[in-house]
Amino acid sequence: MNKIHVSTTVNGDDTEFLCDPRETLLDCLRDKLNLTGAKEGCGTGDCGACSVTLDDRLVCSCLVLGAEAEGKKIQTVEGIANGDQLHPLQKKFIEYAALQCGICTPGILVATKSLLEKNPNPTETEVRYWLAGNLCRCTGYDKIIRAIMDTAADMREAH
Amino acid sequence: MEYYTPESFNKASEIATNAQGITRFLAGGTDVLVQLRTDMISPDILIDIKNIPGAKEIECLADGSWRIGAAVTGAEMSEHSELKAQWPGLVEAMDLIGSTQIQGRATLVGNLCNGSPAADSVPAMMAANASVLVVGPNGTRELSVQDMPVSPGKTSLSKGEVISAVLIPARGNNGGDAYLRFIPRTEMDIAVVGCGVNLRTDGEIITEARLCLGAVTPTIQVVSEVTKLLVGNKLDQTILDAVAKAASAASKPITDKRGTIEYRIEVAGVLAKRATKIAYDRARGLK
Amino acid sequence: MSKFGISQPVKRFENSGFLTGVGKYLDDITPNDALFAFVLRSNIAHGKIIHFDTSSAKDSDGIHLIITAKSLYEAGIVNEMDFDVVTNINGSSGAAPVRPLLAENKVRFVGEPIAMIIAETIEQAKDAAELIELEFSEESPHVRLSEGGPIIHSEAANNVAYDWDVGDKEAVDKIFKEAKFTTKLDIYDNRIIANSIEPRGCFAETEGDRIHLCFSGQGVWKTKEALQKVLKLNDKQIKVSNPDVGGGFGMKHPAYPEYFLVAQATRESGRSVRWQAERTESMLSDNSGRDLQTKAELAFDENYKILGYRLFTLSNLGAYNSKMGQKIQSELFSKVLMGTYDVQSIYYHNRGVFTNTTQFDAYRGAGRPEAIYVLERAMDHAARILKIDPLELRNRNFIPVHKFPYKTATGELYGVGEFSKILSRTET
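Predict the joint structure of the above. Result:
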């Protein structure tokens, strides 16, 4: 089978990989670039654990082909912290215990960061609707929402 | 599987025309990749249309009508303030599909070509009297959205044909549209009933009206009875009740896990009433 | 009052890895060179296997091994999974039909494993699965939560697996006969699928002379013991580990057939082997929770003090006894039977039935949330019938502070409790 050569940018770094046309971006990130932060929970765009941004647009990487990443800019959970310095959102998630098993957390962080970049002052309802495609089976969502609302408030103040 | 990224719709059509085996066009991929993943359909040829010039453009033409490229996503429509101001029902219908992540990829054309009787954007497009530009081996034709669905999962497109854009008529004066959907929860589900309404008024009198129902018939259809009831009349309670009755009468649903036949028929009437009221208010500039 | 002492929130040290995308869940640490395992499962609920032939599948591209019930026997493996049984009212043991790792002659639920295919790639394994010749003679299935119906195991007449009780039936019956008021509630607690966001999975590899099985689970020792027994290994020959786990919920607690098969595949092939369930596979094969129908009765005196509590529950076991299956709606349910109320006269009768559905086991609390749900619904229901404030009804029946430490009717010892005080905080 013909392999496709893909050049792309992941978390600011130029990178390239060879993929089978059927392979998803999620497969390519995990298996070819060894970025295992994005998780596969369903493979059908229902759970959001594989969320990444593609040219600043939030998507499920399980519903994007690796080949579609050609020339695009990809951001994953691995790019949120600045070296050892956690992003304010990550710090709040620890403070609020907004995660338990952690498997949905990368997707939720990527999705939330994308929201706060578009809308630094979201209402709770807006946050809940924005995250409707990110399923969590541990927390019951409440602590996640509170951590996000508090992060947004802090980040607005810092500006 | 072979993956193509043609530079024009003519080229895309040519690849599809000459293709051996199962062919799929890829725009947002929110249906195609799920089918691929779950082994429902394993395409031999996949034609990605997103790199074609114009495929991702929303354009207001000189006559006030709109041309929405085949790869324009729901999120891009929602972010287009002028389109949203003129056709709020259509934009809201598209916005109801899936999560934020799905909105970042899903398209009107994909929703239409998937052929689901419960597609959210299709009743709104049909109510708006939208059409699509079809590029095929024998040239380009314009096809009314109303003539697209044939049966669940089937459309009237033939081999080698690809949709390049959706055309929405000029909004014009005193027009308004609305789309409402009922689902068992608040987000991320498939319509039990969907209802799109588009109408125009002259003062309090309705002069044009189209109401379409989703998820209650094998293919999404215009309920012509409602047009007859509304045109030439003011919208009062008696007319609204008659609209509800006509919508329920046009519903031929099935019973499944989301709702029974009786329930869907009832809800169709309720949504028809509510959506008509919203469209009427919008047409008269009240909302 | 500031926070002090035990039971106060603490910051977890393991969170930062989860937040930066460097958690080590199963699929993040699976050996790169591992072969892929795919499980061929029954697509019918009940029937006999009348034809089964893997020969053309074995010859297809990239196939290393196909494990079947027959190949397990040939390798000297015990094709049985371990489970607990309860003691019936009549003193006998609950039905204990064999739960095979791989079905041999009969299949009893949709999703039951029949063969495991080991290949270089997952696509090759799936393609080979399609080449396996498999024919069934279908039998009508028993899928409703009820006694009777087509027989699933000859060991369980009327599909009743066990018939268990606790309490003094005669004494409680007498209390109900003489009570001022009695109330009765029928209540159904529906079936649940755990749906951890990380599906089940495992891999096995060779570490020197021993096999290492790593699975997304909730503890290693019981699984290690079970592996030793089934694969006939001593404790030096196998190591079992759990990596970071993306949601367990009790569902990932017991061992599943795939873990034994993957370990065996590594032993036979000498290669690392991985198996990762897809979402649909999880829906079909993960242990379910709940699915019980209860009749709950309360007897009261003229002051609305509860005199007795009497219940009957019919519960679903699925097609086989899972590890804890029989104990959940019986022994575990009864542990919190009377909740926070001071009542010593109870009678709980539970019957478990087999159905042609996926097996049931622990899920989030395992029997105890079910018991509390029934009890508190019965209290609300009684308050409505007796026209008394539901909070008042509870306050009259809570275990009073001076009675602690308190031994419940089902033998549990409660240390402390101020239930009226806690309830009062919900009123503000």
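The mean pLDDT of chain A is 96.
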